[in-house]
Write a structure and sequence with these properties.
By secondary structure, this protein is mainly α. It is built from 17 helices and no strands. Helix 13 packs antiparallel against helix 17. The protein is flat. The two termini are about 30 Å apart.
């Protein structure tokens, strides 16, 4: 045992500069990431700021049970799952398709122009995007003005529950697909050109080269990003929904994050319940990430965690 400790000490000393380099990051995570986890105790208490964490009464799983009893909380939970999984099905493939299309463009100059155009919306905040949408899709907006001009009936798109989620997915793709496609474009650039040359010699068409060369070449990148997306499934997109929602679409738009915001800032704050919701989301996200990693690794051999 003593010999092992001495050997470990020598190894640590030989790499001392590396550990010194890592030290600021470890301190940061220790103070700002792991330190605040002490506050998770509030999820099991009726927290009172006057008594603090250690002085507040313990109530067990009371706040976790509330999530599955309160009608508004159940509705928010269902909306979170529906919106998040719909995003996976609809939004996740969009940057892959965009990257493939950009990669197949012949002109390098035009490719850069289009990539810039598709990437630019990422740098707009959802406050700006939602304002643009309200100007365009509102009852007196540009789109309705055109509909009325051609004799149609005005539609308040952002206040129609059946249309709201479709607008969520469409605007999210418009805003983020170009930025996310950068990773796939970088992965495509790493595919050996010899593979394409061999496919051309074998008489493969452009679609066949995409299917049999490009997609297998970027499969590890797709696998890792898919696992990370599944591990983020309980975050339904607070910024976007918060700025775009209104009272008319609340039943299809409110997710757990907006529900917690409402009960925290529009009513008497309940810090214990808010903490319980956050902890529940984190546990579900972790379980989904581990599950997705296991499934993807079994199916494709690629995984985020070994």
């Amino acid at each position: 045992m003593r010999r092992r400790l001495c050997h470990l000490g020598r190894e640590l000393w030989s790499a001392k500069y590396i550990y010194v380099f890592l030290l600021p990051g470890l301190i940061y995570y220790g103070i700002f990431r792991y330190g605040p986890m002490y506050g998770l105790l509030m999820a099991f208490q009726d927290y009172n700021a006057r008594f603090g964490v250690m002085g507040s009464p313990w109530v067990g799983l009371k706040h976790f049970q509330r999530m599955f009893i309160t009608p508004n909380s159940i509705s928010a939970l269902v909306n979170t799952f529906v919106i998040s999984f719909s995003r996976l099905l609809i939004e996740f493939p969009a940057p892959i398709l965009l990257a493939l299309l950009l990669n197949e463009m012949r002109g390098r100059r035009m490719k850069r122009i289009y990539q810039t155009l598709f990437t630019f919306p990422h740098f707009l905040s959802w406050v700006i995007v939602s304002s643009i949408l309200k100007t365009m899709l509102g009852n007196n907006g540009v789109v309705n003005a055109l509909i009325a001009f051609f004799g149609g009936e005005r539609v308040n798109f952002l206040a129609t529950p059946s249309l709201f989620r479709g607008i969520l997915y469409t605007t999210s793709i418009w805003k983020e697909a170009g930025w996310s496609a950068i990773l796939y474009i970088a992965a495509i650039a790493g595919v050996y050109p010899e593979y394409y040359e061999a496919a051309i010699v074998d008489g493969a068409s452009r679609l066949q080269r995409i299917w049999h060369v490009t997609l297998p070449g970027i499969r590890p990148t797709i696998a890792v990003l898919f696992i990370l997306s599944v591990g983020n499934v309980m975050n339904g997109g607070f910024d976007q929904i918060f700025n775009m929602r209104n009272g008319a679409v609340g039943r299809v738009a409110d997710i757990l994050d907006t529900y917690v915001y409402d009960i925290t800032f529009k009513a008497t704050p309940n810090y214990s319940f808010s903490t319980a919701v956050g902890m529940f989301k984190s546990v579900v996200n972790l379980a989904m990430l581990l599950g997705a990693n296991g499934v993807v690794k079994r199916l494709s051999g690629e995984g985020l965690l070994q």
